[in-house]
Write a structure and sequence with these properties.
By secondary structure, the chain is α/β, with parallel strands linked by helices. The protein contains 18 helices and 31 strands. The mean pLDDT is about 95. Bound molecules: coenzyme A and adenosine monophosphate. Adenosine monophosphate binds next to strand 26.
Length: about 625
């Protein structure tokens, strides 16, 4: 914000596009480099160029050591607040550093060195943060797998990342249910063709598991011994272009994409975003209510706030039911958080339980300044409700696992622009966002098209997919030459505001979680009685969308369809995980198709959502759509 109270956004964004190297070189001054980059952007490296080539750095040093060295040793770095275990645990920067140094030394003693991968399959406990930072410290590449995924998903990621070590825990805790991690871990290792050297397992008091001799090690015993032996690992210098982590995200098949994040670009972009986008000053308390298994959790529970010297809240609980719809307000007031970043689905859940905001008024929210929403489209009624109840700006912003930080948002630190409901506002510095037609030609204002980002993407965005440059080109770069394809469709209005309306591929967004319907179809099709299937996302009042599977049974199957549907629901839970929220399988006589055999997913979705629909001209047999309507009666 400049002195007249006018946003600096337009000037800053224009500068970032006119002189990207100058802009990001300036931002890079906020980072402590071991060796400064020789090139701010080297177009000759990598698939589309690399940021900060020649730079040598350590992400953990920037997140912890430098703050301890410069006066923040006793400031709280991490607050772990868990209504599920009734506990609040705080770590100062010095305490967090001490934990990280010890775990890094333990991992080093297991032979983990720079460039080696470490898979984390962990619940929302502080040890998970310690583990991620410990990897960063020794230059190892972490790959966190969300706890709501099943063994097969974990196995796929183990096979792709080929970790030397796996870090896990005895259990996760969901309301009314203890999630046993160990059987899932064992099954995943059995399914995977790559064997880790060892597993370090955190025993939680809520459920202690057996350890497999010779493979599993007790986390607490290793820690105790290493502390007694005063073991500490120093920071290992890595290239700015070396990977910090791999995070798998749903692709259009059952094989997830390993999004690579490098050290240098990630450091610079995230540090820049903490004040300029989120308006957070070092020392303030910030809360990102995501899970460490998602990109939002990586960037804004851990790296962003710690790089900035802020205090970060890590929350093991839900917006409702732990114990009530006031949980978020309790956390904000108890820890004096100035901002919250969560998914709109959380607000829909709170609004349903507390439509008049009675819980909100029970708490002192005087320090709270801004609510940020992302992960799915922020529907205007939810945004309006939150604005009215909280009386603070509610800011929708759009991003993807691939970008690692916001593509379009409303920059609080630079000075907020007027909010337009339904829009995540404007492209952030470094992003030239265009809306194009099928020939990659930009379309006019207010015209729908594919949303694309002009190459090069800014620092922080993925340079490639893990070991899959060709898949990276195929999935993101080839269709619209010179651009990165977001696979989101939408438009820009006459003021340059971006409106993101939905995906152009088979990805659906369930409670802010990204899932592939194609991946689910592969599971349905593996059932011996299923001849054909289609999975699509149907509207849900809380989760935004939930998957719905249509099955055509093989000729001659005489078992009751209801029985098979139950097995299908259990199969998806078993193979993909509970996070898919797959609860609806519906048997139909046939799937509506075009004359060329394409399943009419769009029309089926409209019927399921109760939207108006028109008969597609290319339909093979119009009666097939009536049959879908009949099958859906009483089911959605
Ligand atoms: N480990 C194991 N299981 C998990 C899990 C984890 N880490 N996270 C979720 N699950 C399970 C849940 O227990 C649930 O299982 P169930 O079918 O037995 O009930 C299932 O996966 C679906 O979970 P979820 O989508 O979280 O639904 P929910 O009904 O438990 O809660 C909301 C609904 C809206 C409260 C919840 O989805 C929410 O808080 N969403 C916010 C999402 C968010 O922050 N996303 C981050 C992107 S920015
Ligand atoms: P993920 O990679 O899990 O972060 O999911 C990314 C996808 O979520 C995007 O491609 C969008 O489809 C959707 N998404 C995320 N944030 C928003 C938003 N603010 N508005 C609309 N869609 C969003």
């Amino acid at each position: 914000m400049n002195v007249q109270g006018k946003s600096l956004y337009h000037e800053v964004h224009a500068r970032s596009l006119a002189d990207p190297e100058g802009f990001w070189a300036e931002a890079a001054k906020e980072i402590d480099w071991i060796e400064p980059p020789t090139r701010v952007f080297d177009a000759s490296q990598g698939v589309y160029g690399r940021w900060f080539a020649g730079g040598v750095v350590n992400t953990c040093y920037n997140a912890l050591d430098r703050h301890v060295e410069r006066g923040r040793a006793d400031q709280v770095a991490l607050i772990h607040d868990s209504p599920l275990t009734n506990s609040v645990t705080k770590f100062t920067y010095a305490e967090l550093l001490a934990e990280v140094q010890v775990l890094a030394a333990i991992m080093r003693d297991f032979g983990v060195a720079k460039g080696d991968r470490v898979v984390l399959y962990m619940p929302m406990v502080p040890e998970a943060v310690v583990a991620m930072l410990a990897c960063a410290r020794i230059g190892a590449v972490h790959s966190v797998v969300f706890g709501g995924f099943a063994a097969k998903e974990l196995a796929t990621r183990i096979d792709d990342a080929q970790p030397k070590l796996i870090l896990s825990a005895s259990c996760g805790i969901e309301p009314g249910r203890i999630v046993q991690y160990k059987p899932l871990l064992d099954e995943a290792i059995r399914l995977a063709s790559v064997r880790p050297k060892a597993c370090i397992v955190l025993q939680r008091p809520q459920l202690v598991c057996d350890l497999s001799p010779g493979r599993d090690y007790d986390w607490a015993s290793l820690r105790r011994k290493a502390m007694n032996d005063e073991k500490k690992a120093p920071c290992v210098p890595v290239a700015a272009t070396d990977p910090l982590y791999i995070l798998y995200t749903s692709g259009t098949t059952g094989i997830p994409k390993g999004v690579v994040r490098d050290n240098g670009g990630h450091l610079v972009a995230l540090k820049w975003s903490m004040f300029n986008l989120y308006g957070i000053k070092p020392g303030e308390v910030w809360w990102c209510g995501s899970d460490i298994g998602w990109v939002v959790g990586h960037s804004y529970i851990i790296y962003g706030p710690l790089l900035h010297g802020a205090t970060s809240i890590m929350y093991e609980g839900k917006p409702v039911g732990t114990p009530d719809a006031g949980a978020f307000w309790r956390v904000i007031s108890e820890h004096k958080a100035v901002a919250l970043f969560t998914a709109p689905t959380a607000f829909r859940a709170i609004r349903k339980e507390d439509p008049d905001g009675q819980f909100i008024r029970k708490y002192d929210l005087s320090k709270f300044r801004t609510l940020f929403l992302a992960g799915e489209r922020a529907d205007p009624p939810t945004v309006e409700w939150a604005e009215q109840q909280l009386k603070v700006p509610v800011i929708d912003h759009w991003w993807q696992t691939e970008t690692g930080w916001c593509i379009a948002g409303n920059p609080v630190g630079l000075g907020m622009l007027p909010v337009k409901h339904g829009s995540p506002t404007v492209p952030m510095p470094g992003y030239r966002v265009d809306v194009v037609d099928e020939a990659a030609k930009p379309v006019g204002a207010n015209t729908m098209g594919s949303i694309v980002i002009k190459l090069p993407m800014p620092p922080g965005c993925l340079p490639t997919l893990w070991n899959q440059d060709d898949r990276f080109r195929d999935a993101y770069l080839n269709e619209f030459p010179g651009y990165y394809k977001t696979s989101d469709a939408g438009y820009k209005d006459e003021d340059g505001y971006v409106f993101v309306m939905g995906r152009t591929d088979d990805i659906i967004n369930v409670a802010g979680h990204r899932l592939s319907t194609g991946g689910m179809e592969e599971i349905l099709a593996s059932h011996p009685d299923v001849a054909e299937c289609a999975v699509l996302g149907v509207k849900d009042a809380i989760k935004g969308e939930v998957p719905c599977g249509f099955l055509v049974l093989k000729a001659g199957v005489s078992r009751a369809p209801a029985e098979i549907e139950k097995e299908i629901v259990a199969l998806v839970r078993d193979k993909l995980g509970p996070v898919a929220a797959f609860k609806l399988a519906i048997t139909v006589g046939r799937l509506p198709k075009t004359r060329s055999g394409k399943i009419l997913r769009g029309t089926i979705k409209k019927i399921a959502d109760g939207d108006t629909w028109t008969m597609p001209a290319t339909i093979e047999d119009p009666r097939a759509l009536d049959e879908i309507g009949d099958a859906l009666k009483g089911r959605v």
